[in-house]
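thread: overnight batch results

M.L. [08:02]
morning all. the overnight job finished for the chain we discussed friday. pasting input first so we're all looking at the same thing
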Amino acid sequence: MSASISEQLGAKTSIETSIGGTSLIQLRRITAGLPDGVTLFTKAEHLNPGGSVKDRPALRMILEGERSGTLLPGMTILDATSGNTGIAYAMIGAARGYPVTLCLPKNAGRQRKQILRSFGVQIIETDPLQSTDGAQLVAREIFRNEPAKYFYPDQYNNDANWRAHYDTTAPEIWEQTEGRVTHFVAGLGTTGTFVGVVRRLKSFNPQVQAIAMQPDSPLHGLEGLKHLQTAMVPGIYDPALADENVEVATDDALVMTQRLAREEGLFVGPSSGANVFAALRLARTLSKDAVVVTILCDGGEKYVE
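M.L. [08:03]
and the structure it wrote out:
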C-alpha cells in the first residue's frame, strides 16, 4: 500500500493532511436508462480543501522540492497555471511559509484571480491568445533570469504531478470500488491525473480501460483542459496509456454541469461536466458489471459571475 498524504507529512495535523481521501459518489438520476448492471461513479476531488484535484500534485511537488533541496526557506514558488494548481500552491505555500508568484492567462476567471489575491499571490497576466502555453513561456523566462529566487515546479513536466495520483488517487479508487473499476475517464490538462491514475489502475488490473478526453476545438471554454493537437503537449503525458481518445464540446459540458447541480446536487465546474458527459456517453455502450469512474475536478464557485 502506498503512503497516504498524512503519512508523507509524518501524520502532522495541518491543512495539507485534509488533502485526498475524497468520496466516490455514484450518480443515480442522470444515469437513468443505463444498461442493467452498469454503474457510474465520480471521484469528488472538488471537496479537497483548495477546491480541486490539483491540491494533490501541488502538495507533492512542493514536498519533493523541499526534499531535494530545490525549495528552500525564503524562496518563492513560481509556476504557470490556469487557476486551480495556482490556488493549491497559494494555500500550501501560505501554510508552509512560501510566497507565490503565478503566471496565468489574462482571460482566466475573475473568481480565480480574486482567490489567488486573497492568499497574497503575485499574479503575472499573460497573453490570453496563447492560453497556458504562453503562461509557461513567461514563467520559464522569469526562472531563467533569477533561478536562485524561485522554486519552479513546472507542473506540466514534473513527474511528481502524476506520481501524486499514482500513489493516492488511484489506490483510493481501487479500494472504493473494491477492485471492480473497469473504465476510467479523465480530461487532459497537465495530464497528471490521467497518467498517474491509469498507470496505477493498470498495475492492479491490466484490463482496466483508460479513456482520455479533451475539448473538441482549440477555441473551447473548458478552463484547465487542453486541445493537445494545437497546444504544447505536457512532457509527463504518455499517449500510449489511452485505450481510447474522445472529444467533448463545450456546450455539452456546460449542459451536463447544470444537470449535475440540479439532478445530483453536485455543484462543480465545466471540466467536471465534460468528464461526466464523456463517462455517461461511454457507459451507455457498456454491458453488465461495467464500473465507470471519472473525476469531479473542481467546484462551481469559481465560475459564478
